[in-house]
């Protein structure tokens, strides 16, 4: 992909659909598509590139709520232009297929047929009428054959568990012949996943005509590939390390940023540090094939959240482990590569107070009430000299629950609310300028009318020392679990109206974009920097510690 590229495709046909492998880009072309699907790929896909990217790039396959097919019933020009500044991160590129379909029966394949993946890989196993609910309610079976191995990558799957049926059958790689069924609305809610079979498999499904308030269907990519022995040859510094002897260790996939990582990789790292008052920390930049090439990390968080997995695109970030041993394992299959990963693992001596951490999730009280079959969860936050920035994010909204935050500022201060996600179509929100809901409401029209995902965080301010924030999920079953993120603070500086990432910071490059930085002199005249991120902690440095951190990052 080239910076500032502008690409347009005119498809001279009545009806066409775009099925995404990753995302879409092409060159200026006029195409007459009849029966043969047309492949669109960015140059050198999936080898990584660094540069300007379109606004939606990276979202199509990374987020389960975004549908993976675009359909139109007329000729169209597809036009995408890079307009954002470079994010200095590597990306895989773009791959998509354009194919015609019948408007009377919008199907992407013929039922009761056999697909030879030796000649048709990847194959898009997409439910009839996707991304909408199927209108064909007959039983459908499709058979797959391959010279060696078949992979089914599930990216989107929603059904009615009571009346719909989906079964995939075949000989798995590890457990013999299996009949595997899936149902419900949350099969791919968190992450996509993959199933592997030997040489042949069949899929049978049927959708009921029963009406639902949510869209049903599935989007599965089927590939054939040759299975090979996994190897660690393409892993940098694969092995076990005592960080008391190895202070800074570089890890990653070979040729990161230049070539796609190798197939069948098996990288394993174990880091331990038993020194008193020492922490394990690591920075990591990562992008792999979403669904199937996964980095498993153990030991970063406290149990039971100590097992994490990374897949797809993940912006560079920095972690402090809560355990004295951290393991990382990266596995890739033999189908599609990407930039891979790179990072540095550090030994931090916390005795020198390089880092202090404030967990600001301390509520003065938290109550639940049941009012007319509606759940009201009430939390009270008190801002003070140590906890003056707090998160009011709630990541698992339920449609019948209201979340109420009562925020109290320090004496003589006002409260600022910074919004990091859209409000419209996500949540209903009311903000009261006082300590109760009997207080006057604050006008939130500027927030509701905002439809821009990127850019500076939007701001509302109170007129007194207290506010009440009430949040409810939009009552739509297809959005039963939504996301909302905002920060409240009573800190203010007339010289800094907007809170934003500080690109002039002395922090290492990998921190940019993940932290919100505020710098100001404390009562002793020492420069203090507060950083707020979405990982629920505040990190505090003074000027001496910043110098140490800067020196460490340069080393």
TrEMBL record:
Domain M02D8-5-like first CUB, first and last residues per copy: 55-103
Residues of the M02D8-5-like fifth CUB domain: 382-490
Domain M02D8-5-like second CUB, residue spans: 111-225
Domain (M02D8-5-like third CUB): residue spans on this chain: 235-347
UniProt cross-references to InterPro entries, sorted A to Z: CUB_M02D8_5_1st, CUB_M02D8_5_2nd, CUB_M02D8_5_3rd, CUB_M02D8_5_5th
Listed name of the protein: CUB_2 domain-containing protein
Organism ancestry: Eukaryota, Metazoa, Ecdysozoa, Nematoda, Chromadorea
């Amino acid at each position: 992909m080239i910076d500032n590229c502008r690409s347009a495709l005119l498809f001279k046909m009545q009806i066409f659909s775009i099925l995404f492998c990753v995302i879409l880009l092409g060159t200026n072309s006029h195409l007459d598509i009849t029966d043969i699907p047309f492949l669109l790929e960015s140059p050198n896909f999936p080898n990584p590139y660094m540069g300007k990217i379109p606004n939606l790039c990276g979202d199509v396959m990374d987020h389960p709520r975004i549908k993976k097919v675009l359909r139109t019933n007329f000729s169209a020009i597809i036009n995408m232009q890079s307009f954002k500044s470079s994010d200095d991160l590597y990306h895989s590129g773009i791959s998509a297929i354009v194919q015609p379909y019948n408007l009377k029966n919008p199907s992407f394949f013929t039922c009761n047929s056999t697909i030879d993946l030796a000649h048709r890989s990847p194959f898009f196993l997409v439910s009839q009428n996707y991304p909408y609910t199927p209108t064909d309610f007959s039983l459908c079976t499709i058979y797959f054959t391959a010279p060696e191995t078949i992979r089914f990558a599930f990216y989107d799957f929603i059904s009615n568990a009571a009346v719909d049926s989906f079964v995939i059958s075949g000989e798995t790689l590890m457990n013999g012949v299996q009949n595997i069924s899936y149902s419900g609305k949350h099969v791919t809610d968190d992450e996509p996943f993959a199933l592997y079979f030997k040489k042949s498999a069949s899929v049978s499904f049927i959708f009921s005509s029963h009406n639902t308030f949510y869209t049903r269907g599935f989007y599965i990519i089927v590939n054939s590939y040759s299975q090979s022995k996994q190897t660690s040859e393409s892993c940098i510094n694969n092995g076990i390390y005592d960080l008391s002897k190895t202070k800074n260790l570089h890890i990653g996939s070979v040729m990161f940023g230049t070539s796609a990582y190798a197939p069948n990789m098996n990288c394993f790292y174990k880091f331990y540090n038993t020194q008193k008052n020492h922490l394990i920390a690591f920075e990591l930049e990562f992008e792999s094939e979403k669904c199937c090439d996964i980095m498993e990390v153990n030991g970063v968080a406290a149990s039971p959240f100590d097992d994490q997995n990374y897949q797809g695109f993940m912006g560079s970030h920095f972690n402090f482990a809560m355990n004295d041993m951290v393991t990382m394992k990266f596995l890739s299959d033999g189908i599609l590569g990407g930039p891979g990963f790179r990072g540095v693992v550090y030994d931090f001596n916390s005795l020198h107070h390089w880092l202090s951490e404030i967990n600001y999730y301390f509520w003065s009280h938290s109550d639940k009430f049941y009012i007319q079959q509606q759940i009201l969860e009430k939390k009270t936050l008190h801002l003070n000299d140590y906890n003056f920035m707090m998160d009011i994010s709630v990541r698992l909204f339920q449609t019948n629950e209201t979340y109420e935050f009562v925020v109290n500022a320090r004496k003589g201060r006002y409260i600022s609310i910074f919004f990091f996600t859209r409000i419209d179509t996500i949540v209903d929100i009311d903000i009261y300028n006082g300590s109760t809901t009997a207080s006057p409401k604050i006008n939130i029209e500027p927030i509701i009318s905002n439809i821009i995902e990127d850019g500076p965080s939007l701001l509302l301010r109170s007129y007194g020392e207290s506010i009440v924030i009430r949040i409810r999920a939009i009552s739509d079953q297809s959005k039963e679990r939504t996301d909302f993120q905002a920060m409240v603070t009573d800190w203010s500086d007339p010289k800094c109206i907007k809170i934003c990432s500080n690109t002039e910071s002395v922090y290492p490059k990998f921190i940019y974009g993940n932290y919100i930085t505020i710098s100001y002199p404390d009562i002793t005249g020492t420069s203090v920097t507060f950083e707020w991120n979405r990982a629920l902690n505040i990190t505090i440095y003074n000027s001496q510690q910043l110098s140490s951190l800067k020196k460490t990052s340069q080393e």
